[in-house]
Specification:
The chain is 48% helix and 14% strand. It has 210 residues and is an alpha/beta fold.
Length: 210
């Protein structure tokens, strides 16, 4: 839930995964297993324990380098384009939240809308082409571009500047409590989203956003 502060909300900051879009890696692990001597559970364990995504999401390595790392570790018989299709095929839209973005975009108060996400180049390139809702945001603050991931305070400071508002004038929606907690520490009003759209809308109405 949000920290109660005085002042009117001028900007809304949205996380991407598990807020605007659902994602599920299980089908991707199963598809990768068809091109690997390892089973889907072994592949899942590799991604969970290796931390291979962290430097990729942080913009420290290229998509090709990331692919080569995964290919070598999992002994994949899969080219880069095939891997990219599997890697990107994990997302489905959250229709209620996309409708909320469209509603805010049309709102008479003219809220500034900013997207903030720990994501990587392959996912982002795929999503911006596939989901028009990303084009409704005034700015995208992305970990692979900023070379830092949430909850690093510096990426939140970048997002605050992108919102063109004071921290207490920003309402931030993310699915992880550690990330909303870090943002709340520097003054943002926050909601930890668990696909609880009615609760989110009720809070936004209470704050005078809707």
């Amino acid at each position: 839930m949000s920290r109660k502060k005085t002042g009117e909300i001028r900007a809304v900051l949205f996380d991407l995964g598990k807020v605007l879009l659902h994602f599920n890696f299980d089908p991707a692990f199963k598809r990768l297993a068809r091109s690997s001597p390892f089973g889907a559970k072994d592949i899942e364990d590799y991604f969970v324990t290796s931390g291979v995504e962290v430097p990729y999401d942080g913009g420290k390595v290229s998509s090709r380098f990331f692919y080569r790392q995964v290919k070598t570790a999992l002994r994949l018989r899969l080219g880069f384009e095939g891997f990219r299709r599997v890697w990107n095929g994990i997302f489905t839209p959250n229709a209620d939240m996309i409708a909320l973005v469209r509603r805010l975009r049309r709102h008479k108060k003219g809220y500034r809308l900013v997207l903030i996400s720990n994501t990587n180049a392959m996912h982002y390139d795929h999503l911006r082409k596939r989901y028009a809702v990303l084009g409704l945001f005034d700015r995208h603050v992305l970990s692979f571009r900023e070379k830092r991931r949430k909850p690093d305070e510096k990426i939140y400071r970048t997002a605050i500047r992108a919102c063109r508002a004071r921290p207490e004038e920003i309402f931030y929606i993310d699915d992880r409590a550690d990330l909303t907690g870090a943002a709340a520490e520097i003054g943002l009003r926050t909601h930890t989203f668990k696909n609880d759209v009615p609760a989110l809308l009720a809070e936004m109405k209470e704050l005078g956003i809707l």
